[in-house]
């Protein structure tokens, strides 16, 4: 089944391009340890998900590109075409001459309704090219205007037009130190609206990815492209084909449906985080060896200590004894402690995957008490290595990992709202104070639900 990627705003278009690059590079890479048949079935499954074939033989990304300014889209189209490996459809993009000026309301209430018909027509045409549609993968920023405001509007339109398809929003969480003055407003409005229309939100935090670039990738002058490539590598490690517990003989045919079934057991809990291990510069791979027990031990500790990368993990954090009540992680004056999960998915790629012991992820004390650990944990595997890594593991978790950043964003936005700062910029586009209050209420409920796991 196919996934249509919807790239929204500057951030969404730049990351989307890197994701297709990673996927294409992985498919065309050499994987000597796999049989020809294995490689062919992997290649075919990937192609069905992400590309349609043109007569020229060059794969065409199943994607719709949307931005209110033309510059990024034209760059993205031409760089992809020049690669020779894949390209975008020249007709599957929409842009205007003027952006949203970092104003969520402008993107949501003005640009959205004005351009709804043409954007949804592009989506419909892309959907008609799919033999079977799994759903939509939208990529967007949370802080700006077009990506966040228009992105929230388009997600709602996708839900209305394709009620039975899955929608996974990939959201970039802004730097904590601030990109734009109103980013906390934009973030609160974006998250609360996506929570209503999306099946799940897969979140990457800019601060975390920046740290990975500096500490793990040893990049001295970190560019947006560096950040986007790390994000794309992590996304590729999840979306490339795998065998699930249900499909041990064939690559999974419904990637988005499988993700939702595995990770979102309740509509109140939709926040997904992603960690992968190892992550290092390409020139270091040749000198590095990894054992599965070591990788799994680190990945599990990253999960329970809420560490976003394998460097600097707090090894003191331990699961609470079964049956004990855990202090609220929402309380900011308590030390960082155990990160309770609702559901976890471990994806293993590479050599000897079928002999890996994942029993430590089935420990009931990792999960909330109202779920059976047998249902809360899943593993997907493939013997085919990913992106030059002989062995690699990814963890997608639905856990308390975002409680602190979410609480911070809501708190800062509320403080600004209480003093009526910048509200007029939103009301002039029809977003009323009542809309803000509804958004605060919705997110306070999300925070409360995750706190009480």
Automatic annotation (TrEMBL):
This is Tubulin delta chain. Keywords: Cell projection, Cilium biogenesis/degradation, Cytoplasm, Cytoskeleton, GTP-binding, Microtubule, Nucleotide-binding, Nucleus. One of its GO terms (cellular component) is nucleus. Pfam families: Tubulin. InterPro entries: Delta_tubulin, Tub_FtsZ_C, Tubulin, Tubulin/FtsZ_GTPase_sf, Tubulin_C, Tubulin_CS, Tubulin_FtsZ_GTPase. GO terms for molecular function: GTP binding; structural constituent of cytoskeleton. Its cofactor is Mg(2+). SUPFAM superfamilies: Tubulin C-terminal domain-like, Tubulin nucleotide-binding domain-like. Dimer of alpha and beta chains. A typical microtubule is a hollow water-filled tube with an outer diameter of 25 nm and an inner diameter of 15 nM. Alpha-beta heterodimers associate head-to-tail to form protofilaments running lengthwise along the microtubule wall with the beta-tubulin subunit facing the microtubule plus end conferring a structural polarity. Microtubules usually have 13 protofilaments but different protofilament numbers can be found in some organisms and specialized cells. Belongs to the tubulin family. Acts as a positive regulator of hedgehog signaling and regulates ciliary function. It is found in: Cell projection, Cilium; Cytoplasm, Cytoskeleton, Microtubule organizing center, Centrosome, Centriole; Nucleus. Residues 47-246 form the Tubulin/FtsZ GTPase domain. GO terms for biological process: cell projection organization; microtubule-based process.
């Amino acid at each position: 089944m196919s996934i249509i990627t919807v790239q929204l705003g500057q951030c969404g278009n730049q990351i989307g391009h890197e994701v297709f690059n990673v996927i294409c590079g992985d498919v065309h890479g050499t994987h000597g340890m796999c049989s020809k048949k294995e490689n062919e079935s992997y290649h075919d499954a990937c192609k069905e998900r992400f590309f349609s074939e043109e007569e020229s033989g060059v794969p065409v990304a199943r994607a719709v590109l949307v931005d209110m300014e033309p510059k990024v889209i034209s760059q993205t189209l031409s760089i992809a075409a020049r690669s020779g490996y894949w390209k975008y459809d020249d007709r599957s993009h929409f842009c205007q001459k003027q952006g949203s000026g970092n104003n969520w309301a402008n993107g949501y209430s003005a640009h959205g309704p004005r351009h709804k018909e043409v954007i949804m027509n592009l989506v419909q045409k892309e959907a008609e090219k799919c033999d079977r549609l799994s759903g939509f993968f939208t990529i967007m920023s949370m802080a700006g205007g077009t990506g966040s405001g228009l992105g929230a509007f388009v997600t709602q339109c996708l839900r209305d037009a394709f009620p039975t398809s899955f929608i996974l929003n990939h959201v970039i969480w802004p730097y904590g130190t601030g990109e734009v003055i109103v980013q906390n407003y934009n973030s609160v409005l974006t998250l609360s609206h996506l929570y209503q229309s999306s099946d799940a939100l897969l979140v990457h935090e800019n601060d975390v990815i920046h740290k990975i670039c500096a500490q793990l990738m040893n990049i001295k002058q970190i560019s947006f492209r560096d950040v986007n490539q790390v994000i794309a590598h992590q996304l590729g490690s999840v979306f490339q084909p795998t065998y699930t517990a249900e499909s041990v003989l064939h690559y999974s045919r419904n990637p988005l449906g499988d993700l939702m079934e595995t990770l979102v057991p309740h509509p109140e809990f939709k926040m997904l985080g992603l960690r992968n291990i190892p992550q290092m510069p390409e020139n270091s791979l040749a000198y590095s060896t990894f054992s599965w027990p070591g990788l799994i031990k680190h990945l599990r500790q990253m999960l329970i200590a809420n560490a976003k990368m394998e460097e600097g993990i707090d090894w003191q954090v331990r699961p609470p004894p079964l049956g004990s009540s855990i202090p609220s992680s929402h309380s900011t004056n308590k030390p960082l402690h155990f990160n309770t999960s609702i559901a976890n998915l471990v994806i293993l790629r590479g050599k000897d995957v079928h002999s890996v012991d994942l029993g430590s992820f089935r420990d009931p004390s990792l999960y909330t008490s109202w779920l059976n650990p047998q249902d809360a944990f899943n593993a997907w595997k493939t013997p085919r290595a990913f992106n030059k890594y002989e062995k690699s593991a990814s963890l997608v978790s639905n856990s308390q990992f975002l409680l602190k950043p979410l609480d911070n964003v809501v708190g800062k936005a509320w403080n600004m709202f209480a003093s009526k700062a910048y509200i007029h910029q939103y009301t002039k586009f029809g977003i009323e104070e009542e809309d803000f209050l509804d958004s605060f209420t919705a997110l306070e409920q999300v925070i409360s639900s995750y706190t009480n796991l």
